[in-house]
Amino acid sequence: MRIAVFTDNDFNKVNGVTTTLRALLRWAPADLQIRIYTADDRGVDEPQYYSRRAPGAAIPFYRGMNLYYPPLWAYLRQLRRDRIELIHLTTPGPVGIAALFSAWRLQLPMVGSFHTDLATYTTLLSRSRLLGRIVGRYVRWPYGRCERVLVPSQATGTALSRAGVAPGKHVLWQRGVDPESFSPARRSVSLRLRWRALSDTTVVMYVGRISREKNLDAFAAVEERLIRSGRPYRMVFVGDGPMHAELQARFPGAILTGSVPHGDVGEYLASADVFAFPSRTDTAGNVVLEAQAAGLPVVVGDEGGPRENVWPGRSALVTSARDDQSFAAAVERLVCDSSLRAAMAAEARALALTRDWRAALAPLFATYRQTIADHAAVTTNLVPAATVDQSLLAESLHDLS
Q1: How confident is the model at residue 388 (pLDDT cuts 50, 70, 90)?
Q2: The domain that contains 111 carries what CATH number?
């Protein structure tokens, strides 16, 4: 079975989507031949990855992120050469629209997977509810044409159903983690020294895009409480984005690492002590699983997908997503209680070991197989009119003879 996965997230980007797609390629079973279709400013043609060089433009309100506009006919030619049987749409950008066009043109079945809440992101970044509603209505279009839509959490599925995005078509596809790449064994003393974090210093870490939609304002309350506690601590922000300079000015004692290669993130996480993730907009939060695999107790809010990737009270403290003081109090509790921190770190690692990528990808692979089988059954039952006419003609000639 040959599958083309269309995404606007080329592999030059480091985010939850590319992490998931890399795992998809790595763990694909023998009966599924999967190839990524995307676009960037270089162009790549490899057995599992086809990127078309294309003109690009910055995403409005999302500085530092580009979208590329690929030639549709080039994709069609490549899909035919690859003998693709199913298209998987992962993003509703220009490459996602190319997926929609290709599926229609080649009469191929299409499934979708939902990764980013673009409507909410648009509202937060543009500060316009109207623009957010327009984006939300737009998103219904490509996903509504999918046979099935895979969602990373129950919360996301519920929100999409309420918004009228492919209701009744949702399949739960939770994320996984590589427990070898993300492991407590990767803790680095030299990295902690670079952060000026001595042995008695508790490192509170955030990993992700440094942008307003991640609710990073919550760290103001965290810093205020930690200062009052009198405990030695260091806040470390791993990632980059438009709030970088603002965050550095607000937290002069914090370490802002900038963008880090995904292969190094496991070492950074393992070298911290507490993982704090205040985002209310993440549909999954892969990094929450990665932090737990690295042996970190986590603090998350009670909205969005991350809360479904923890054991509340065991591997994580789940707080009110819209109460920064509640979030800050949970972080302070872990910083001040080393025994609780150690117990929850062990539980975090145990949870991660139950969420390896092989098991996590099973619903996706099953969806691929079922959708292709359903399409083949429908196609087999549809006999072209020309074929029917020829059959009737043959029977008539036989009768005459």
Answers
A1: very low
A2: 3.40.50.2000
